[in-house]
Every structure is written in C-alpha cells, then in structure tokens.
Amino acid sequence: MLLLANLTMFACGNAKEKASAMVTTDFEFTSGNKKLSGIIDQPAKGDARALILFVHGSGLTDIRRENRYIDLRSRFTELGIALRGVGQAW
C-alpha cells in the first residue's frame, strides 16, 4: 500500500513528458476463439527489471489516446519495471 501511495504522488510534469520516458508497444494474440490485445510499456532506456500486469478495468477506454494512468505507468517504467495493460480485448 505504501508503494502505491508513493507512486500515486508522482504527478509532476505533463503527459507528453512522461510518455517520452517509455516505449509503448501494442500486442494481440488469440486464445481459444477470443482475440486478446493490450499494450506493453517499457523503459525508453535500458532493460526492464520486472513486469507488472496492470488490469485497469473494462469497457470503452483507450489507454493510449486518453493517457490513462500515465502517472503510474511512467513511474513504473522509470523504476525499470515493464508494464502490461489490457487493450481492446472485449
């Protein structure tokens, strides 16, 4: 809980600056008869040391266009943690 509280305090700078510190890649695969998709955020410099699966909800959202959770996503990648979020898999 403390880690999450510290991460949510990372709110300085704008979304464009935060997004430039990471590389975001779309992906998709099929499981059974369902197509699953999402994004992977990785540090722009260096390799990721860990991966967090971030399931943030469902419905009509576009995490990239709307810069959803950009504070958390950019803080994780600054710490060298890759972040996999869900995408258009509904």
Automatic annotation (TrEMBL):
InterPro entries: AB_hydrolase_fold (IPR029058)
SUPFAM superfamilies in the cross-refs: alpha/beta-Hydrolases (SSF53474)
Domain of life: Bacteria
Protein name, entry field: Alpha/beta hydrolase
